[in-house]
Amino acid sequence: MHIPDGFIPLGQCAIYGIIMLVAWIFTLKWVVETLISWDKEKPNTWRMITYLFLIVFILPLFIFTIQAFNMPVPFGTSVSLLGAVLVAIILRSPWGAVLVMSPVLITQSLFFGDGGILTLGANVLNIGVIGGFTGFYIYKFARSLGKIPQALI
Length: 153
Description:
By secondary structure, the chain is mostly helical. It has six helices and two strands, in the order H-H-E-E-H-H-H-H.
């Protein structure tokens, strides 16, 4: 759910902005650790280029497209599909969801009116961090249960 401007007080927006910056720091740490681990393995530049192309271009476009279909709910906001879970599963880390969802949410707030600029921290926390972590760990839990319970979850 994209939170528009004016839904939460400015003080809370500042707190969510600080939390968003902390999430970005942890995301950058994850990116650096991933690149270092790839360098320690057998270096493969095509693998890195393909992976970065996927992260930078393909996934954000796909997530932006599936989140463009908004369903209105009462009190002036809307609900869209949660692409952060899909990104976290594809990239095998919930921090990947924060990495991909941040530019998507910035674009949606600046150009399409989904969410607000002041509430960007709350939206990144709500959609990228909480959605990515919750969906990723539910997915990891469901994988260990077997095929039938996994299909139910």
